[in-house]
Design goal:
The protein is mainly beta. It has one helix spanning 78-87; strands at residues 2-7, 10-16, 21-24, 27-35, 41-46, 49-57, 62-66, 69-77, 97-100, 105-110, 117-118, 123-129, 132-137, 142-147, 154-155, 160-165.
């Protein structure tokens, strides 16, 4: 099965093979993936290198937090991808979008203000959680239409921190 994946700004074609193998843009990888009993925590071995991540499904994408970096991942199977191409649409590129707290934590710094024009992948919030500073990024480019937190605030998991919209809608 083939999947078309967009991680922040980069696009990948992932093919699931047999016997714990995948191809990412035609490069082979041996993987072992386990969801741990702790909610949302995943353990992944990629070519015998260990990686842990918090993985959560959101409205139209997945959020993956690993090594202090938050990645927004859009995944489409081959049929959905071809249908989106035929319609001239691309997943996650327009409309109002919220940057949400991936886990409870303390806002260390807000890096944007209402009215700022931002780019996809730009850091917007620094959140301390689990004794690590996590840099939350914009899922897509646009205009910041609302900042719903401030430095020093405690936030809950899934709390909306920043709202981004299309420039012509702001």
């Amino acid at each position: 099965m083939k999947y078309y994946t967009k991680v922040n700004e980069k696009e990948f074609i992932i093919e699931i093979g047999q016997d714990d193998t995948i191809l990412v843009n035609d490069a082979p990888y041996v993987i072992d993936f386990k969801i741990l009993p702790i909610s949302g925590l995943a353990s992944l071995l990629i070519n015998n290198q260990s990686l842990e991540a918090v993985v959560e499904e959101r409205d139209n994408h997945w959020e993956v937090l690993t090594k202090g970096e938050l990645y927004n991942v859009h995944v489409q199977d081959e049929r959905a991808f071809r249908l989106a191409q035929a319609r001239g649409t691309d997943l996650g590129d327009s409309g109002e979008t919220a940057v949400k707290a991936p886990m409870p934590g303390l806002v260390i710094k807000v890096l944007v203000e209402k009215g700022d024009v931002i780019e996809q992948g730009q850091h917007v919030i620094i959140l301390e959680s689990m004794k690590m500073e996590n840099e939350l990024k914009a899922v897509r480019g646009g205009v910041v239409t609302a900042v719903k937190t401030e430095a020093g605030a405690s936030v809950d998991k899934d709390q909306v921190l920043i709202v981004i919209d299309d420039p012509d809608e702001a």
